[in-house]
Amino acid sequence: MQVKTFTGPDTKTVLARIKQEMGLEAVILSKHEGCDESGPWCEMTAGLERPASAVKKMDSGNGNGNGAPAGWGEWHREWSEIREHLLALMKPGIQLDELAPRQRVALEYLEREGVDNSVLLSLFRRMHKNPDLSVLVPLSEMLPVRPWGEEQWRGQCHAVSGPFGAGKTSTLIRMAISLRSRRPDMRICIINADCERGNGRLLLKHYAELSDMSYLEAGDPVSFANALRETREYDKVLIDLPGLGRNDTFAKLEEKLGLRTARDLAVHLVLAPSYAPAQLSTFVRQYVTDCPGSIIWTKLDEACTFGALVSLAASSGLPVSALSFGPGLKNTLTAARDVMLWRLLFKHQLPCDADTRNGL
At what angle do helices 198-210 and 168-182 cross, to 10 degrees? Predict the structure, then answer.
């Protein structure tokens, strides 16, 4: 295992360095915080069961036919089992009675919501040191928010990726409608790179025509490059990417379509909280990319728990940009806000609920 220690002024900065240098598969082995004459500091030791160069090799799609080093699947399975055993052994050491009553209630609730054990351990350590600390403080560090909109996402090209059935195509339409509602004069082009699915193609083309948006199709590098040339003067270009097969990687898709030619590309991963935790982790590894991006949570009205919002953000480092709910296309996607996430997590209030809309 490769082990490396990182230091910085705060937890968020250190986690960003770990993600950049060691990738999403790095495991936090220890964490120390303090304050001296130069100010607050944070030190973390992270471990990786294969060299960082192998991570980059896998992310770029090199290696064997699956885009991963030989034997990586077996190594990952064994490490996952070891990690779960370690967490199971450590969990009895969490003495909830040592926390303040409101902290204990919050931690017990998050456990029922399905928040990952590693996240619960991190929360316990933070709150155990400070009985007056609200659980929302460490949760805010684990669950970054970057609201969808022109102000926060100034790049021209935005691609929507995700597994089949997650609501990727309808989410892209909702994103386009949201942009147009804020700026009626905005020039928007929709590029359909998922040309093999007829239903999605008809839906995108239909709504593009109704909303006075341009529509193009690009299923290969040549047509994709041509589409990008045609859209140079547009304010926003929204790209609907195809879902990946079981043995595919996002790096292969980038190469197949020539995605790297897109200017200021951001990739937004569409997921539903009703997926099993192991499935969500698999999707994040499969769709990993070094492009700026976010998570868009969809089908919120079909989920019964929302602990996945915290667990996935903590493990991936990706911010939440939008929340989607309901079967319609208008007024069913909203830019993510902290208060919306807390009400969703602790009260199961959807963004469309009256109390959330009114900010009560």
Answer: 10
